[in-house]
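Hi, here's the filled form for the chain we discussed.

Project: internal
Contact: R.S.
Residues: 118
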Amino acid sequence: MIRTLLASALLAIGAGLIVVSSLGLIRLPDVYNRMNAVAKAGSLGLICILLAVLLLLPGVRTAVVALVAIGLQLVSAPVGGYALARAAYRAGSPLADSTRYDELGGRVPPARRRAARE
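And the returned structure, exactly as it came back:
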């Protein structure tokens, strides 16, 4: 009973995080913010769902599969998000107007320079 309630809560939290991630993908202003939302919220949502599966189907095989999947997700999502953001930056994808400082270029984006002059 307790396991089922905890698994249900984890499933709801995981699904909620994935929905938030998808909303971030639609609503955020530039490719860098979108990738950040998907990499973080999507990963946490998937981890919550995998933990819920582990609670609902206890067993050694399930535990091994779930923990390996969680480990791979924790390693691959940040690295993949970073690589995609770096590729987008090198391809010249524009920064949002609200960006204050360009960490990779070491400069203030052109839109912010124009606003500061006016």
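Let me know if anything looks off before we file it.
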